[in-house]
Amino acid sequence: MIESHPFKLSNLHQRLRQRKQQSIFVAKMYYELGKTIKCERMLNCSNEFYISKVEEESGLKFYSVNSWSQCKQRHCPMCQLLKSFKLRALLKKSILIESNYLLLTLTIKNCELSELRKTTELMSEGWSKFWKSAKNDCFIGYLRSLEISVDQEGKGHPHYHILLQTEENYFKEKYKPNTWFSDRWKYSLNLDYTPITWISKVKGNGLMECTKYITKPSAYCNGKILEILDKELDGIHSYSRGGKMKVKQEDLDKIERGEKFESQERQGKPDFKIEWKTNSWNVKQWQLPE
Ligand SMILES: [Zn+2]
Fold it and tell me: How far apart, in whole angstroms, are the C-alpha atoms of residue 54 and residue 51?
């Protein structure tokens, strides 16, 4: 065990530590709900990682998680972080940097948690309608992610984060203000109020930053909420894509199911291994044996 390993000072170490602690917190909720299998699986989620030291052509050095075994449960904070790593890798491989992208957030009024399934189904239908008209209006592809947070009154706040690919002349000739999106979203959902929407331009590295918004960890304040979310969101898909977005739906499905895809295998030999012990990551080996 090497206590003073430089990895301990890294951003990645911090994030893995925080998520592991959050996962243990959620696992305890499952235990209190009597769902011991879910609890056990989450407690055993990602107890070890192989880590690689990466140096990019630009000289940028960072640590990267190389392989792991995860519990694959929707509400596991560690699995959610791993999803964002995978999505980032997928976007890096697939996205055309020279294209223009927008990050669009579409919301709807908060609903009772027991109405989440109905509400997300409505949003999904609304999005189909929205996209049907948007694709004829200078947008050429999308990657959509469903996020659900819970407000202080215990109501659900389902919303979409959407990476929208635009035609080349969009910002010069066809730019649409935020009101265009909120009006179109209102119409698509047949609402009697104007929903809140946000739009911002993303390019280059900013595109990778989107994965942060697309897979933010959910907050579960108590077991009761977790139990309803479990029931309401069972089988609801988080990601979808459309148009010319160069990301395959099957890869998104793999990410959703917690499966690995090939880019993960391509990172070469890991440099060392870390193991979770009580409340900390221990670095086990500097160098793996040949
Ligand atoms: Zn997990």
Answer: 9
